């Protein structure tokens, strides 16, 4: 067992405050590379590159990261069905070779009909997950077989072969999804089941559910959490930073996000939305204020280094070994987290297993 810590690439802008009409820092190539390099220096194992309408193209950003770093693993988010799986397999294999075998993929089926519709995707929720499973079946066949024929509900192949081949025999896949369809797809094809930072008891329930589903297929998964961190030398400074982060939210941005939340058919997003009440605090040192204006991962662990470690330890105690962290702005916070938080987990032991 090993703990894995990854950072995040802010490909839709960055800054000390969120919820503005225009980000304080635009997501240009130089800034993205700077964040990736800072993350590598800070000691992160990987860096997530998001996918979606508001973001830069994840494959192109992944290529930039690969060519400007040497050890960090880009976790490239992709949407099944937007590009044919055979072409996606070739793109992944090419970048796997360029990187020396250090890429992962994050399968994002999508949870907003309006956003997906902007790209011409109008499949209903459960059908999207059926397509995801068909997509992954094609990837697996291309990775495992020299030549393959395949006839599925969404994709077909005839005498297909993957050239070039991956360096990694099978590129690790991170999967999210809290619906039955999402958890079933993760159980069948995922390597890491990824959740957003909810209350640890609810996370534990989903872990047990997915673990049981995976067992039906003779598979074993690892488990991850995607969450923000606001860590400072003192608790007071950390909460001051949290307050500053949401101190200048534009009302039109918050209204637009509220409308997005109402139409989204993502069960995981609906679970996140339930945390948007009261003072947004829950669990050990956790806060949902970021979710006011950020879809997806909208929670953070807030406090001094020991408190943030305690907040993450809640997840480790229930079986989580992968963390994808982020903080605003991502450049300075990568360095800060590398100094104040990551050392808290070095040489940690769980039972007789070292989580170095």
TrEMBL record:
<dbReference type="InterPro" id="IPR050172">
    <property type="entry name" value="SsuD_RutA_monooxygenase"/>
</dbReference>
<keyword id="KW-0285">Flavoprotein</keyword>
<dbReference type="GO" id="GO:0046306">
    <property type="term" value="P:alkanesulfonate catabolic process"/>
</dbReference>
<keyword id="KW-0560">Oxidoreductase</keyword>
<dbReference type="Pfam" id="PF00296">
    <property type="entry name" value="Bac_luciferase"/>
</dbReference>
<dbReference type="InterPro" id="IPR011251">
    <property type="entry name" value="Luciferase-like_dom"/>
</dbReference>
<dbReference type="GO" id="GO:0008726">
    <property type="term" value="F:alkanesulfonate monooxygenase activity"/>
</dbReference>
<protein>
    <submittedName>
        <fullName>LLM class flavin-dependent oxidoreductase</fullName>
    </submittedName>
</protein>
<feature type="domain" description="Luciferase-like">
    <location>
        <begin position="4"/>
        <end position="322"/>
    </location>
</feature>
<keyword id="KW-0503">Monooxygenase</keyword>
<dbReference type="InterPro" id="IPR036661">
    <property type="entry name" value="Luciferase-like_sf"/>
</dbReference>
<keyword id="KW-0288">FMN</keyword>
């Amino acid at each position: 067992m090993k703990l894995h810590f990854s950072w995040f690439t802010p490909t839709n802008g960055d800054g000390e405050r969120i919820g503005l009409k225009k980000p304080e820092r635009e997501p240009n190539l130089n800034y993205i590379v700077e964040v990736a390099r800072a993350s590598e220096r800070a000691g992160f194992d990987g860096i997530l590159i998001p996918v979606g309408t508001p973001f830069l193209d994840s494959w192109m950003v992944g290529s930039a990261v690969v060519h400007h770093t040497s050890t960090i693993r880009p976790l490239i988010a992709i949407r099944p069905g937007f590009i044919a799986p055979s072409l996606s397999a070739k793109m992944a294999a090419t970048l796997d070779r360029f990187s020396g075998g250090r890429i992962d993929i994050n399968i994002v089926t999508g949870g907003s009909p309006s956003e997906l519709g902007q790209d011409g995707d109008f499949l209903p929720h459960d059908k999207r997950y059926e397509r995801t499973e068909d997509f992954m079946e094609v990837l697996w066949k291309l990775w495992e077989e020299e030549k393959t024929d395949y006839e599925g509900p969404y994709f077909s192949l005839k005498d297909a072969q993957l050239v070039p081949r991956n360096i990694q025999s099978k590129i690790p896949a991170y999967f999210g999804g809290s619906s039955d369809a999402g958890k079933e797809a993760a159980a069948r094809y995922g390597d890491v089941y990824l959740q957003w930072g909810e209350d640890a008891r609810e996370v534990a329930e989903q872990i047990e559910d997915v673990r049981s589903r995976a067992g039906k297929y003779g598979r074993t998964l690892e488990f991850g959490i995607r969450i923000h961190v606001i860590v400072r030398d003192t608790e007071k400074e950390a909460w001051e930073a949290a307050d500053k982060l949401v101190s200048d939210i534009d009302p039109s941005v918050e209204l637009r996000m509220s409308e997005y939340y109402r139409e989204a058919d993502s069960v995981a997003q609906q679970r996140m939305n339930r945390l948007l009440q009261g003072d947004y605090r829950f669990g050990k040192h956790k806060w949902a204020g970021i979710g006011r204006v950020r879809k997806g991962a909208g929670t953070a662990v807030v406090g001094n280094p020991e408190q943030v470690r305690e907040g993450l330890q809640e997840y480790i105690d229930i079986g989580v070994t992968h963390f994808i962290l982020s903080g605003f702005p991502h450049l300075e916070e990568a360095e800060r987290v590398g100094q104040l938080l990551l050392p808290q987990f070095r040489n940690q032991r769980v039972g007789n297993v070292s989580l170095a």
